Fold this sequence. Notes:
mainly alpha
Amino acid sequence: MLWLRRTIAIPLAIIFVILSLLVLVAFRVNATIGNPDFYTEQLQQADVYHFIYDDVLPAALEESGIGEDTGGAGAILSPLKTHLVDVVRQTLPPEWLQAKVEHGINEVVPYVWGETDTFRIDIQLKDRAEAGAEAIKNLLHREEIFPVLYEQLIQLATSEVTSSEDGMLSVLAISEEEMGIMLRQVLPEDWLLEKIDRAVDEAMPYLTKEQAHFTLEIDIARPLDELEEVLVDFLSRKETYDSLFTGMLAPALQQNLGEVTELPLGMELTDDEIIATAKDMLSLEWYRTLVNDLVAQIFAYLRGTQDELELTIPLADRKSEIADTLGQLADEKVESAFDSLPVCTGAHLLELLSNPSLENILCRPADISYQEFKELVGIDVGSLVQPLIELGLPDEWILTEADISQLLGGEEEENIFSQARELIQEGLIFTEEDLKKAMGTDAEALEDIRQWIGDGLILAEQDLRGLMGDSAGGQMETFEEVRSGLGTAKKWINFIWIVPFLLMIAIGALGGRQWSSKLIWAAALLAVMSVIAFISFGPVFSAAAQPVIDQTLMEVSQVEGITPSIAEKGVTLAQNAIDSFVSGLRNQSLGILIASVLLIGAGVVWYNWDKIRRKDADLSNQ
């Protein structure tokens, strides 16, 4: 009945091949997708961690447009843009990133596959934040970085200050270039870098939650002293003198001397003549003698050593000179008009002599000079004008705090000197409240960042519900069912080979007569299965499945919104994972084939050995 046994063995062999292929795939899945080491090896093989810093971050910076804006923060970040990746690399080194990712994989994969009921990913960021602060400081201290950044800051500040056409710089005749020079003197590069370092050092304990508050106090005594010296220098320039005279003194002169401009014979002292005369008397040299004292008073008020700001410009010693000069000019103008009058006829002469006056005079007597006529009528134009001019000019001009503030471009309701005084008296202080106010709606994000840095970024299985959103209940139930099934499969996977193994033994027992032939039958079946597996996961897979996989990966890589470098790396990663999975199946099939051939060889040797033994036994019996 050997033929019947072998007939029964055929369908069992088919079942064995199918089950063995499934077991082979199941074991490969368990060794790859179900094994955390598979993911870590694939990420290492694809060099993902260095790829993030070498390709992903630079591409992300380019696409973000950081530093392309010519104003504001863009101008500040522009010199730093090419170095931001280095800062990130020093803050979160590839080795650290790899360790944290592998830690996460080792926690999550067993949980997903039902081997554990909990997982906890604990990423401590405090030391990384401190490393980031040092990286920023080191970057700023590089010779090729901060000088460029400093110039950008100066240009930005200069543009902001000079943007107003009627502001302080316009009044003081300070150009944008000169303003830049002033700022470089008042805020030198080394001083500013020192303050930035201190700001970083003060902010770090707050960001890491070591302190609940932070206060950054900036001592501006040095800049204030520098500003006083710089202002004295700039205010002493002729350009500033001309601008201040035109904008401040000239309007006051026009207002005070407007009533003394009319002269006899239709003559008048023009505004230009009055201003020119006053400017000659209130000369640049006279102005420069006042600058030091006026600036000293302003800064004494700002520092708080003087209670009120009231600048006094003395004019008493200049009034008489201005009056004499303008009186002489008025007399000369009247004389010129008198000399240009026609000579009087007899009737006109009698009328003029009967009532001599410079008012409404239409002609002049022949052979009488202007000086003789003045003596005749008893009128001296210069002497008449001088007292009026002295009366119109005050002994001193007093500029109040509000006057100076308005002159320098302040609005009526604001007093820039009071604001500056308050700032200097209280000191330049920046606290966490100021930071939150500056961040506006992003202040909540700041607290989240502090929480992550101070306490660490912790993810556990409870966080999955939050990630799944409103439908977390149903999704979690399904997820738990999948986990339970995978966990059960994981527990029993090491025993599922027993079924095909028993089938192989049964087929060997049914197909062979002797133990050696039974072994050959079982090994031959195993060899057939391994050949089928090798062909299926080798040529057949390459011809049928690989083109479909390649096409799918190509379509995925062309999805809008994915950068080419990331898409390429993703395709490489996926292809490597597939190749690793399939090559493992091929290698397992080849290993089983070699083992089965060895078993067949052993069975043949055993069969022949039994045959020889039986023959020897028969000969000995004869």
